[in-house]
Design goal:
The structure is a single chain. By secondary structure, this protein is mainly alpha-helical. The protein is built from 13 helices and two strands. Strands 1-2 form a two-stranded antiparallel sheet. Helix 1 runs parallel beside helix 3, helix 2 packs antiparallel against helix 3 and helix 10 runs antiparallel to helix 11. It is elongated, with a radius of gyration of 20 Å.
């Protein structure tokens, strides 16, 4: 992958989502309580990046009910973070087959397709997730990342801004759900993120990404003068310094 997005520093990041299948809960039986307990334990383990512990709890949950979409989605997440993509894909796909409107599982499978280079399928699933759940912030970030990678920058920025509008602190508060490809960000993608934050008047993060763009070799600083996204921050002295770099 040659065009890479940096969500947090220098690495491409995809955001997975816990979500809820939205199915009717089974009765308060001992079995249902057991599944709920193990799913809860697995959720905590994933947030703490203890993926083997999560998998152990999910194996127990799925032994009780192998058709529980939430357990399958979490199992897919744990496997995804362990880079067991084949098993993760099977988990996400089964969760979706059991609950076709499970937006979080659609988002997660879309991220897996993105990570494994199946970009058209990834875009299709991420957009489907947003059709079902228009407030699913993680899908906006992931779709924005994908569109940046394929060069559809303006479209990408629209999705990234929507993600920030829904939850400005989402990236910071969901760090445990960020999966990095380990590939460094490009100059153009860093500049795109500067545009996103500039449009929101966030000078601090605009400057962070302008500096990252500079380190990555960005040189077309005159765009700051003409790009409307920079209107809210263009007069800031620190932003002006980048204009003078040309």
């Amino acid at each position: 992958m040659k065009r890479i997005l940096s969500l947090a520093g220098v690495f491409l990041a995809l955001l997975l989502d816990f979500g809820c299948a939205g199915l009717d809960k089974p009765g308060s039986s001992e079995a249902a309580a057991g599944v709920s307990f193990y799913v809860g334990q697995a959720s905590v383990a994933i947030k703490e990046k203890e993926y083997d512990r999560a998998i152990d709890n999910l194996d127990r949950a799925l032994a009780i009910n192998p058709d529980n979409p939430e357990a399958l989605n979490l199992a897919g997440m744990a496997r995804f973070f362990k880079k067991d993509y084949k098993i993760a894909e099977a988990n996400f796909a089964k969760a979706i087959s059991l609950s076709p409107s499970y937006a979080s599982a659609l988002n997660n499978l879309g991220n897996l397709y993105f990570m494994t280079g199946r970009l058209e399928k990834a875009e299709e699933l991420l957009k489907k997730a947003l059709e079902i759940s228009p407030r699913l912030a993680s899908a906006y970030y992931s779709l924005g990342a994908l569109l940046l990678q394929v060069g559809r920058t303006d479209e990408a920025i629209t999705y990234l801004i929507k993600g920030l509008d829904l939850d400005p602190s989402y990236l910071d508060s969901h760090k445990s759900l960020i999966a990095s490809t380990g590939a460094q960000g490009s100059a153009e993608s860093e500049f795109a993120w500067a545009r996103v934050y500039a449009s929101r008047g966030d000078i601090e993060k605009t400057l962070v990404h302008l500096e990252s763009a500079k380190r990555a070799g960005f040189r077309d600083w005159k765009r700051i003068e003409s790009d409307k996204a920079f209107d809210p921050v263009r007069d800031n002295p620190d932003v002006q310094r980048y204009i003078l770099l040309r």
